[in-house]
Amino acid sequence: MTNNDFIGLAISYVYATGLLVIGEALRRLFAVKPDLTRKVIHIGAGMWAFGVLLLFSHWEIGIIPFATFIGLNYLFYRYRIIGAMDTQDSSPGTVYFAISVTLLFGLLWRPDGPVDSAPIAVAGIMAMTWGDALAALIGRRFGQHKYQVGNSVRSWEGSLAMFVATTVVVFMVLLLLPGSSLSPLSTPLSLGWALLTAVVTATFATLAEAVSPHGTDNLSVPLIAAGVVWVIMHGF
Questions:
Q1: Are the CB atoms for 130 and 165 separated by under 8 Å?
Q2: How far apart are CA 201 and CA 78, in angstroms?
Q3: What is the pLDDT averaged over residues 49-67?
Q4: First to last CA, the chain
């Protein structure tokens, strides 16, 4: 490990601690409900994917912070340690979140070459980070038209938010990240291919979110989204 690796790890843990502190402050000082503070932490954690790309040059070290939180998030969930993450219907979704990010970066992120597929991993992570979060928030606030698939109850409003948000974030990732300073070894996509890939990916991610029970969408959405992007980029 280099000095930069140690610095990257330190910044990552400080960032994660800061997210938890902010969530708790919002809950305790401003009476923000845990449903919202949990999503604030969810989005903040997902966006740290870009911090990882920026700070680390070895994927084996870069995945350590998210891998660490597999165990920590289980303890937070099991013993309800962090009130800002503890909703009435709390699920082990935070554990699945950390697992999915660790898996995607571990499988696809290769900053030292020869081929880096980090944009595919980040596309999947952003589908979970923004698509899933906005689906839940919009669904709870405006979801008047419910539907049920198995044991999963969703709203059409939430699913629409999921589709739109996922399309936007995946499109932005695939258009801007490949070939950039954060992923110089990945292959850039044209605007048309990025948009088509985003729409198809959002369709599958929305379906995955709709049928995934009790927090498992934090596994199914990013893995399926990344898988769809990989197939499109390598299959055509």
A1: yes
A2: 33
A3: 97
A4: 38
Regarding pTM above 0.90, the answer is yes
Residue 20: C-alpha distances to residues 31, 73, 152 (Å): 15, 11, 28
Q: Which residues are paired to 153 by β-bridges?
A: 148
Residues 6+ apart with CB under 8 A from 1: 61
Q: Measured between alpha carbons, how far is 134 from 185 in angstroms, rounded to an integer? A: 31
**Residues 213 and 150 sit within 8 Å (Cβ to Cβ):** yes
pLDDT tens for residues 157-178?
999 999 999 999 999 999 999 9
Give the residue ranges of DSSP H helices in the chain: 3-30, 34-55, 59-62, 64-79, 93-108, 118-126, 133-142, 156-176, 191-211, 217-235
CA distance 17 to 162: 28
Residue 193, burial from CB neighbour count under 10 angstroms (0-12, 13-18, 19+): middle
Tokens of 91: 């699920």
